[in-house]
Design goal:
heterodimer, A: 290 residues, mainly alpha, globular, B: 254 residues, Rossmann fold, 10 helices, 39% helix
């Protein structure tokens, strides 16, 4: 049962992360390949502050603010780039953040990571805390989902889609495309930071190795499998991919091949991504073509 | 209305628009003609801000607009269509129109939460207006269809409808009738005349000469990037330089 709870919490965190990426990728058409950086920024900011005695709620708020501000800065420097170049720039940004976390040992302890990240006292740390954390993650997921639904169904969401479909037309219609995309990136970054915060305080140990290109591909997979351009898609995608990954663990593999299991998991994810793009590019939940 | 002074644009060694000056004045529908490659579309891109001028100035209603980004020019009351139709294929026909409403409060984040009622009212008004325009363009039956599923001619009409959502002062149309069938052309002409009668100024590039002669009070003629003539349709038809631009000079004719 505890194992199931654990998987559920992970699925919710990745659902939030996937929904935040989808606002940029699915709605605004921004292929951000460095979204993991904001997950890491949220996790590290909240972890470092709370380890240094800042009350957890304050640390969380600070983490969201930092993620948003850095998101705005990244937007400022990358939104002049089109298509592939934007993707490459964001990918490089994520690498830079990871290198920073690895090398600023005085602050981040480098590759040793940050152990013992505190949790709110009322959640506790024993097995019974799992239910509480599940509740917190569930509420967080619901809030993020409802918030994004509000944005998606409003003129704001429609305007983002106009930008995605044809940037020239958006400009001809009087839309400030840079401003719209910046807003999408800031909100996306804050929500990714929130997912990172949950991760840090749930796992209670983070290190730069948690925030690599692999995690970027993982969350991309959640969005693409779930269905980009809808909020329900990435929400379900997060659950589907996390549960699928856990399911792969239970495939009976002879012990002499066990060292292949981890690479095999990566291969299956990669294969799944390719199959989905070929066979069902719209994902499980298709963007309704109203 | 729209005034150009010494507008110039070159791409590398090619001078696409060479020292063009004119003032549309108070004319209802003006036309811009010229052989392929004479700089008409480039001039439209310059007016709407998609290209930056090398030199010269453009002003709209007496205010300089050269140097402004396209969205700012659009917000000042200049709407345009494109030579190749550019509808938003995955959005519905109706959403294509609603999203063309200018300065929507609901496109900002905070009002969505703190002025939700006002946003809803605005959205309802925009939807109503969009339905009226669909009715006018006889596209009502297609409102819920993705715009990408419409025929080419219907997409052209939808583009015109999008322009109407903005209540513009001036519309510039790049080849509005290219590739659409005669009956749709008639309904387009009717719509354009209605707009003119409402006081909206129209400036169009068009190759269909009988149509240009029918619609436009004043015609501007470009050749090789320069404005070579302007006048009434009758004057243009009888002008030697215009005929040369289209057909070549006598001594060059084979």
């Amino acid at each position: 049962m505890d194992y199931l709870y654990h998987i559920l919490v992970l699925a919710m965190i990745f659902s939030i992360f996937a929904m935040s990426l989808n606002l940029e990728l699915g709605f605004a058409g921004l292929y951000n390949f460095g979204h993991i950086a904001f997950f890491a920024i949220g996790a590290y900011t909240s972890a470092l502050l709370s380890l240094n005695g800042v009350p957890i709620p304050l640390a969380v708020v600070a983490a969201l603010v930092v993620a948003g501000v850095i998101g705005a800065i990244l937007a400022r420097f990358t939104l002049g780039l089109t298509g592939d170049y934007f993707g490459i720039a964001t990918l490089v940004f994520a690498e830079m953040v990871q290198l920073l976390l690895l090398n600023e040992r005085d602050i981040t302890r480098g590759p040793m990571g940050l152990p013992g990240i505190p949790r709110p006292a009322w959640i506790g740390s024993g097995p019974e805390s799992l239910v509480w954390f599940l509740l917190v993650a569930g509420m967080g997921t619901a809030i993020v989902f409802l918030l994004l639904q509000r944005l998606a169904n409003a003129p704001f969401g429609r305007a983002l889609k106009v930008v995605r479909e044809d940037e020239f037309v958006a400009q001809a219609l009087g839309k400030d495309t840079t401003r719209l995309k910046t807003k999408a990136m800031v909100v996306g970054s804050v929500l990714a930071g929130f997912a990172g915060v949950l991760w840090a305080h749930y796992i209670t140990y983070i290190s730069p190795a948690d925030f690599t290109l692999n995690e970027t591909i993982f969350v991309l997979l959640c969005v693409v499998v779930g269905g980009k351009g809808t909020n329900l898609g990435p929400l379900l995608g997060g659950f589907a991919i996390v549960f699928f990954g856990e399911f792969v663990r239970f495939i009976p593999i002879p012990s002499e091949f066990s060292r292949f299991v981890a690479p095999l998991q990566g291969m299956i994810y990669g294969g799944l991504l390719i199959v989905m793009m070929l066979k069902r590019p719209q994902g499980l939940i298709s963007e309704s073509r109203r | 209305m729209l005034e150009l002074k010494n507008v110039r644009k070159s791409f590398g060694g090619l001078i696409a628009v060479n020292d063009v000056s004119f003032d549309l004045g108070d004319v209802g529908i003006s036309g811009l003609i010229g052989p392929n490659g004479s700089g008409k579309t480039t001039l439209f891109h310059l007016i709407s801000g998609f290209y930056k001028l090398d030199s010269g100035t453009i002003s709209l209603k007496g205010e300089p607009i050269s140097g402004l980004p396209p969205h700012a020019i659009s917000q000042l009351g200049l709407s345009r269509t494109f030579q190749q139709t550019r509808v938003l294929p995955f959005l519905s026909t109706l959403d294509n129109l609603i999203s063309a409403a200018p300065n929507q409060l609901g496109e900002n984040l905070l009002p969505l939460f703190f002025m939700a009622k006002k946003v809803r009212q605005e959205e309802a008004l925009n939807r109503e207006k969009a339905m009226e325009i669909l009715e006018q363009l006889k596209l009502s039956d297609l409102a819920t269809l993705p715009a990408g599923d419409l025929s080419y001619g219907q997409q052209k009409l939808l583009e015109l409808g999008r322009v109407l959502m903005a209540d513009p002062a001036l519309i510039i149309l790049d080849e509005p009738t290219a590739g659409i069938n005669p009956s749709l052309i008639r309904s387009l002409v009717t719509t354009l005349k209605q707009l003119r009668d409402k006081g909206i100024k129209i400036f169009l590039v068009e190759h269909n000469m009988p149509l240009v002669a029918e619609l436009c009070e004043k015609i501007y003629v470009m050749d090789s990037g320069a404005l070579i003539f302007s006048g009434s349709p009758e004057e243009v038809q009888g002008n030697k330089r215009v005929i040369e631009a289209y057909l070549g000079r006598d001594n060059n004719a084979a």
